[in-house]
Predict the 3D structure of the following.
Amino acid sequence: MTETLHIIGGGMAGSEAAWQAAQAGVPVVIHEMRPQVGTFAHKTGHLAEMVCSNSFRSDDDEQNAVGLLHWEMRAAGGLIMEMADKHRLPAGGALAVDRDPFAEAVTDRLLSHPLIRVEAGEIDTLPSEGKWIIATGPLTSEGLGKAIQAETGTDALAFFDAIAPILYADSIDMGVAWLQSRYDKGETEEEQKAYLNCPMTRDQYEAFIDALLAAEKTEFHEGETAGYFDGCLPIEVMAERGRETLRHGPMKPVGLTNTHKPEEKAYAVVQLRRDNALGTLYNIVGFQTKMKYGAQTEVLRMIPGLENARFARLGGIHRNTFINSPTLLDDQMRLKSRPHIRFAGQITGVEGYVESAAMGLLAGRLAAAEILGTPVAPVPQQTAMGALIHHITGGAEAKTFQPMNVNFGLFPPLEGVRGGRRGRKDRYKGYTDRAKELWTAWLEGQPQEAAE
């Protein structure tokens, strides 16, 4: 019989790893501690639960690195992308997902696969034998975290991840807010009106910043440090970096025209994105926060159109842990000191749902190939997948290693293309064309997948 692959963690990475390995014909056991052992951020026991934003970000596979990663995962038969496409919500040029039906669909598909089973319960030690993938994500349990620290001989790195609030759509004042995607992006009217926009005058913005800076925040425990990932900064931290920071970040007013007052140019705009298919819930885009609950409701209701907002979930903050992958992992994502164990997902130092699932996809395929005795060629670094795995397994500077989203800065440069901002469009198209050709060739070189 084929050796079983064990996967600790049923998030984006663990779910995708399980699917890829099972599709290759390898039996898989997913070890998931939820719902027996909960976390600060998770609300259900579903696999692949989305706990922060509901966005997979840009779906542009010609001009955007994460859109290219979407393309590569779809080409590889990725379960996470298939379910995201089936449960997508209007979001302009982005891929937003109806989070609960998405997680339920991923869970149902995995549980119905004849080679996959799920065992509930926490694993708090490193396994000494067998084939394993640790994909426990940013909320790795304390016990397993300590076991990893003891094995690696170094402290796990940590940063704090803040969650954006979600509110009820019927509590938004549509006499103030209007529907529009930035620059009217999207091919359909629904896509072009995928966001709710709340405008602010200069005086309103300044008062908001004052209240934000003065609000009571979550305190850290002794010995903890607030090393935030720049892609998920709390709004208070951004405001502390300068009063205009938010207005040039999530509150930028560009590309938007107030349908109620088309002659007035807003000084700042708060955007909300639909959070479910029914359109009854909206999350505040880029508004991760560490404000205490009482302060949150008071400050957020200062936003025009949200004066009477009712919140389905307030924002929060939790600790994110990840390993120093460039030091600890080999180019097959195996722990150098225990090569029967692979790591995948956010715990490796990639950031974002899509990047986590992508590393799960690779880990699942690499583990399956090893079990089946069918080694695969290295993933071309010129692909989005290859750029990410190269970054975490040796391309990054270990001393300054921080979580990283996929971006074209991780790709080997193109020859004969114009540099700088003016040449960006042609350069990005060159990156994506090259990546698609190489990724397709890499997939075609793999052993034939088993039938489902």
Summary: The mean pLDDT is 90. The two ends are 18 Å apart (CA to CA).
